[in-house]
Amino acid sequence: MRTYGLLHKVLRDEAMPVPLAMIRTVDDAEALLTLVETTPLVLREDWFVVSMTWWKRFVTAVEEKDIDKILCVGIIDNSDIMEENTVDKEPLPAANKKFKLRPNLTERGEFVLIPESVMVPLLETYQCDTDARIRRTVVQNFLRPYAHIEVYPTIIKWRTVFNSKVYETKVEPFMTAEEFIDELYESAAHGIAKDIFKLYVDQEGVKKYIVIDENLFANITRDDVIVVEWNPNPASRSLHGAGQRR
């Protein structure tokens, strides 16, 4: 996974080359390969998810240093890493279908991340269907307080101590721990005094109390369900205590 490190900072401070408009020579293509490996992560800049199947074809052609083969790699094809978004209840005509990234894919396994400075000349050279362009932004949040590309949203599962129904809350880009706690509090325990608002996970029948900070996933797994607990005295229970506040 890409992170913003010292090497990236040094490279960022150096004079950046003039962006390519499209690939015309072997040197152009080789320059794009270098940019993929050396471009630093800068907050709010866009990167793109590209199928490793297509990317390997491109890299192989570049390594052979044959411009004819490079220019004949073919349209950027992400079909093997995408699936139809079936959130719509009614079937859609083929022209109106929406697609999304398949779940649980891995960087450098099924896909590669491409900076916009590389994607622009690739699009000019090879084209790509608009629906197949998978754009992601460089972000940070309290769980990962450094620049990173969030290929999939970060989801935290939770329930209240009075209800077994599990809810999911997305950790938004640039969200602080305090903002997430406020959102969780409003959803789960609105009306309850915050000083009796506690969080724990059940690990083999033992309550492990936790805090929401950058070390959260060092203490629990992403599959753990956080339990929101407070004084069970009926007089202090929220009307929304048995479920998610809408």
From TrEMBL:
UniProt organism field: Steinernema glaseri
A Pfam family the protein falls into: DUSP
Protein name (database record): DUSP domain-containing protein
Domain DUSP: 23-139
Record GO terms (molecular function): cysteine-type deubiquitinase activity
Gene3D superfamilies reported for this sequence: DUSP-like
SUPFAM superfamilies named in the record: DUSP-like
Origin: domain of life: Eukaryota
